[in-house]
Amino acid sequence: MDFGFVKLAIATPIVRVADCGYNGLQVETLIKEAAEQQVQIVCFPELCITAYTCGDLFFQKALLDEAENTLERLLESTRKYGLLCVVGMPVTDGTQIFNAAVAFQSGKILAVVPKTFLPNYSEFYEKRWFVPASSALTGVFHLCGQTVPFGANILLQGGGACVSIEICEDLWMPHSPTIHHAQHGANILLNLSASNDVVGKNTVRRDLVVQQSSRCKAAYAYASAGFGESTTDVVFSGSGYIAELGVLLAEHERFRLNNQLTIADIDLERMSIDRKRHTSFTTPLAPETDMYRRVAFNLAPCKKAAVMRAFDPHPFINKATLDEDCEEILSIQSAGLAKRLLHTGSKKVVLGVSGGLDSTLALLVCARTFDRLDIPRKNIVGVTMPGFGTTGRTHQNAKALMKALNIDSREIDIVPACLQHFKDINHNPAEPDACYENTQARERTQLLMDIANKENALVIGTGDLSELALGWTTYNGDHMSMYGVNASIPKTFIRHIIGYVAGLKEQQGRDTLNDILNTPVSPELLPADKKGEILQKTEDLVGPFELHDFFLYYTLRFGFRPTKIYFLAQRAFAGKYDEMELKRWLHLFFKRFFSQQFKRSCLPDGPKVGALSLSPRGDWRMPSDAVAHLWMEEIEAL
What we know:
With 638 residues, the protein is an alpha/beta fold. The protein has two domains: 5-306, 4-Layer Sandwich (Nitrilase/N-carbamoyl-D-aminoacid amidohydrolase), CATH 3.60.110; 319-636, 3-Layer(aba) Sandwich (Rossmann fold), CATH 3.40.50. The chain contains 20 helices and 20 strands.
């Protein structure tokens, strides 16, 4: 493995019913193709050696013998490839026939796993031919001259991978065997299937696989029978899926008329971290389920260059459900604020409106909340507070937005107060240092707090998750509020939410919202350039927020090492940022993330809206004086 990746494949061969020799050659062809593509584990469909639709031919000794002969030839012809292969075939102990999966590698059979649940309804008649796993008379099986472990309670282990096997109907049961397999360590769940197609079934089947991968915190590979199966009464489309932690990574093309191999890189580290985080996952099971046998296999390393998986540069954002997610986030934010207003008895809120992204979203949330509570929007006090670096563009956008939303709009010039403060502390206003900048942020917060006292209102915080991660906020300045509605939303997502609101029918201030989206992110604490344009651009100083959000996601969500995050970023942002840029901003991210924890340790209340939060009362509990040497040295060694 490299960074925990395993190259996993599902394979669906074309078959001829009861023609084991032909079917075996198709399986061999696919195994060879998988080996050439550096696949480490490949899963085939149920009964693919004989075909699933043999019917009463399963009682024919000639067919059963030829299935075993075909397996023996497969063992020899694929010995040189070395990948773990799992194929479906009927096996008999002389008195019983089992619908089984056979796992083999380098010419050796590792295990035979019989099907646990046999469907015997509608178009299925499996109990006519087979017996379930519970009917096994012994825990070993003799096949192709080898004596091997036999049973449903077998896990294959090698190189960090722990593989379990189930067959078709096992997935559809309310008490699927994979749940026990996963709780006993299985992180790659294979399902050999022969699931026919009727209208609507594919969606249900796909959802089952995705949900099972999420529930079991594992990768789930599902390979089903395809072209060549008998169409006397049913049709098989060759459906197949690979999912990981509730995300579909790859899918077969259905109704193909030839062999099909679908490959995905799965991340064992990702799943391991998720299981460690969810401690309830390993809750002790009933004693009778704890009798597992573990069989070793060799998992060849997955070379770094062989990892072809695509990584979304914006992992917080699901493009397929973006509008739905934006609406959900706005609903969570407004519900949180509504509860706080009702609890405190407040009928008013106060917030600073700068004409930037964060204050715009906070204002939109306030307007939505007041509408839901049937409180006049004039009870929202928006205050624009121009300072030394405020530009005409942001100033006008702030005023235009407040007017469009019909709130109580106020303006206070903070320059005189800041100059007086510089005089009081004997600071030269010609020196644009940290004191120069932070004085403005704290003056604005003081004004908001005092107005809130006067109006019996709550100060609404506007800072976002990305800024909190970097500590890009003035301590006891914009860092402080009475309720922070944006505190768990990354900067990259805030843009999408505002864009979503701007696109809503009858949305007030649409043109202003669009111009705010096109304005560079800036605290506007330093004077503008000679043309009156923004000089102090945040992303020029601390780096692109899309990179920091990417670093933050994989640091918090999965606890990845900096070297792995760098590896993922190289692929996610290929062609956009070079390696030195990635290293530079990754170094800065970890440096600031550790040094700025003290600001997060006293974070105001605010609602969690997504997968991550930096609240010291919720997701993230970190000492303010933790040492970053381990992470920094690893980055410097890149």
